């Protein structure tokens, strides 16, 4: 099963560390999984599957038919832009030697850092607002 996780990381150009950071799963969980010491619990497998937009079955078996197609999702769930924002942050953080541009102008490292911090801050504010709305 870990090999399927590795494949998903590779296909999505993310590191296991990034998956941990963005899902709240500890790096120890992933390390123990990789070493074959244990398989993550169902709730953690669900977080990983959701992160990659696959089912837990796919994560466990690697069966292509288990991939969730966005077009087949029930419209009542709408679109979760948090995943889009996480992907943007990942794209910004993964640029090692390839420069990023904004409106045709190269963006310096300080501006990219500010952009990531602002996106993360906005996401935290959204979480706080959503918690308040639940009450």
Structural class: mainly alpha
If strands are numbered along the chain, what order do they take across the biggest sheet? 1-2
CATH-level-2 architecture of the largest domain: Orthogonal Bundle
Report the sheet with the most strands, covering strand number, pairing sense and barrel closure: 2 strands, antiparallel
CATH topological fold name of the largest domain: 434 Repressor (Amino-terminal Domain)
**Between the first and last Cα atoms, what is the distance in angstroms?**
39 Å
Number of strands: 2
Average per-residue pLDDT, rounded, comes to: 80
Q: Would you give an account of this structure?
A:
The protein has 135 residues and is mainly α. The chain has two domains: 2-72, Orthogonal Bundle (434 Repressor (Amino-terminal Domain)), CATH 1.10.260.40; 79-134. Helices cover 61% and strands 3% of the residues. The protein contains seven helices and two strands. Strands 1-2 form a two-stranded antiparallel ribbon. Helix 6 (81-93) runs antiparallel to helix 7 (109-134). The termini are far apart.
Short description:
With 135 residues, the chain is mainly α. 61% of the residues lie in helices and 3% in strands. It has two domains: 2-72, 434 Repressor (Amino-terminal Domain) (Orthogonal Bundle); 79-134.
Features of the shown structure:
2 domains, two-stranded antiparallel ribbon, 135 residues, 434 Repressor (Amino-terminal Domain), mainly alpha
């Amino acid at each position: 099963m870990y090999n399927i996780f590795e494949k998903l990381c590779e296909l999505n150009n993310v590191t296991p560390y990034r998956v941990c950071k963005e899902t709240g799963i500890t790096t120890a969980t992933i390390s123990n999984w990789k070493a074959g010491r244990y398989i993550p619990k169902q709730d953690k497998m669900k977080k990983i599957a959701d992160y990659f937009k696959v089912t837990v079955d796919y994560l466990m078996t690697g069966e292509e038919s288990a991939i969730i197609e966005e077009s087949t999702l029930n419209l009542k769930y709408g679109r979760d832009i948090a995943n889009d924002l996480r992907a943007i942050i990942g794209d910004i953080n993964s640029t090692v030697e390839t420069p990023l541009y904004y409106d045709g102008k190269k963006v310096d490292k300080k501006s990219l850092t500010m952009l990531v911090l602002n996106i993360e801050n906005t996401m935290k504010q959204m979480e706080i607002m959503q918690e308040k709305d639940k009450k």
